[in-house]
Design goal:
Blueprint lengths: L9 E4 L6 H17 L6 E6 L5 H15 L2 E7 L2 H10 L4 E5 L8 E8 L7 H11 L17 E3 L4 H19 L5 E5 L5 H11 L3 E5 L18 H10 L3 E5 L6 E4 L5 E2 L1 H14 L7 E5 L4 H9 L3 E5 L3 H11 L3 E3 L5 E3 L8 H15 L3 H5 L7 E7 L12 H14 L4 E6 L5 E7 L3 H19 L1
Parallel strand pairs: 2-3, 2-4, 3-6, 7-8, 7-9, 12-13
Antiparallel strand pairs: 1-5, 4-5, 9-10, 10-11, 14-15, 16-18, 17-18
Helix pairs in contact: 1-2, 1-4, 5-6, 5-11, 8-9, 8-11, 13-14
């Protein structure tokens, strides 16, 4: 069990739990591990989101890297996928993103990326933790001319803008429609600086809301985690599409012209249909997670596509894509990976793909969303002791209840049980055609799990 790193780097309350001292150690140990896997002292890129604690954490990170002898290039406020892209393009040895993604401002986090622009594997995180706790950090100190050097490279943001121009400029020029209007919600986060530059460069008629970060308003009642504000804005002002990013810019959710949600599953259906017709969907496959809506699976079955499920988490989606040569995958939450372009979820890329498809098809967003039927879902937590979170698998009464519910659905619903990785909870998720019925069934099953496992 790792002590510091979770499923998505280290994420804690800044300056009390994620202290400068801890960050310094993470950086120094990280530089040591990275230098073992190269034949030279590493150069590391650092990007961050707009949290008030960002520069504090960045300063401690820089100090740790330089103290070991690694060199640093600071990218400033930059979306996670931009850092990943620039790491690969400029052949840095690694990079770090300082962000807590969709969490509120008081949290912050540290995520390491490899020279390929992907999150580093678990074994390297474990190596970093071992060095942090070894008591030997003081020995890993550069002296004299071996101390690292830091350089500001916020200018590289323009390279990320050019990345989108290369992909979309010619395509959008062919189908440009000045009457097509997009509302963009940058969640007062990492996309607030770059999104206007991208949409301006591509000649898209847009307006941006929630793009005035003050250090504490990131994700506050805005962005992909609070999409109701964008939905109202789109309807009230007659936009054709609404686009919402999260705090670090690797997620994208949308709303159609009627303010109805277009989540990651719907985006995957729309994009896969388009890519297949263009002959660009590798292996005719979508990679998604076990939490993806049943509607996505049925969509694939009805349209001759392969549907591959992984554990929850974009890193597991990416692993499967890399192992099997697939190029489209993602999560319901809006992490969509277009592996032909970037090995991480990229909110701006996702939104531009959707805009291209809408303009090229000459259909409304709501029409395209009808390709897939989304089934209602309900999620209820059952409280159980941590040492009994997996005991439901052996309990005959619980197993029989699950089987009865699924039999009743006759293929138009499902039950998914997921023990929490961090809390004494078992999550009961049920999908089906009737919201009232699935809510009742989920409550009954959660109550039974609590009764039998406590």
């Amino acid at each position: 069990m790792r002590k510091y790193f979770g499923t998505d780097g280290i994420r804690r309350i800044a300056n009390t739990e994620l202290t400068p001292e801890l960050v310094y150690k993470v950086a120094k140990a990280g530089a040591c591990v990275l230098s073992k896997h190269t034949d030279h002292m590493p150069t590391i890129f650092i990007g961050r989101d707009t949290r008030i604690s960002g520069t504090l954490i960045e300063s401690a990170m820089i100090a740790g890297f330089l103290s070991y002898g690694a060199n640093v290039k600071t990218l400033g406020v930059m979306p996670t996928p931009a850092v990943a892209y620039l790491t690969r393009k400029f052949k840095a040895d690694a990079s770090v993103v300082i962000s807590a993604s969709h969490n509120t401002f008081e949290f912050n986090g540290v995520k390491y990326f490899s020279n390929k622009g992907m999150k580093i594997p678990d074994n390297l995180e474990e190596e970093i933790e071992e060095i942090m706790d070894s008591g030997k950090l003081d020995e890993l100190t550069a002296i004299n001319d071996k101390i690292g050097v830091s350089e500001n490279r916020e200018d590289l943001l323009e390279e990320y803008v050019f990345f989108f121009r290369k992909i979309f400029e010619d395509k959008l020029l062919e189908v440009q429609n000045s009457n097509f209007r997009v509302a963009i919600d940058t969640a007062n986060g990492a996309t607030s600086v770059v999104a206007p530059k991208v949409f301006e460069a591509l000649g898209i008629n847009y307006e941006i809301i929630n793009n005035h970060p003050d250090g504490i308003n990131i994700n506050r009642n805005c962005g992909s985690t609070h999409i109701e504000g964008l939905a109202k804005y789109v309807v009230d002002n007659g936009f054709d599409l609404g686009v919402a990013y999260d705090g670090d810019g690797d997620r994208c959710l949308c709303v159609d012209e009627n303010g109805k949600l277009i989540d990651g599953d719907v985006i995957l259906a729309i994009v896969s249909d388009y890519l297949k017709k263009e002959g660009k969907l590798k292996n005719d496959t979508i990679v998604a997670t076990v939490m993806s809506n049943l509607g996505l699976k049925k969509y694939c079955q009805e349209n001759g596509l392969n549907f591959v499920e992984t554990n929850v988490g974009d890193r597991y989606v990416l692993e499967n894509m890399l192992e099997n040569g697939h190029n489209l995958g993602g999560e319901q939450s809006g992490h969509i990976i277009f592996l032909d372009y970037n090995p991480t979820g990229d909110g701006i890329l996702t939104s531009l793909m959707l805009i291209e498809i809408i303009l090229k098809s000459r259909k409304k967003a709501s029409e395209l969303a009808q390709k897939i039927k989304i089934y209602p879902q309900v999620l209820i937590n059952a409280k159980v002791p941590s040492d009994k979170k997996y005991a439901y698998k052996e309990n005959e009464e619980i197993k029989a209840k699950i089987a009865d519910i699924e039999k009743e659905f006759e293929g138009n619903g499902r039950v998914l049980i997921r023990p929490s990785g961090t809390e004494p909870l078992v999550r009961v998720m049920i999908e089906g055609e009737n919201q009232e019925v699935i809510t009742q069934k989920a409550r009954e099953l959660a109550d039974l799990i609590e009764a039998k496992l406590n």
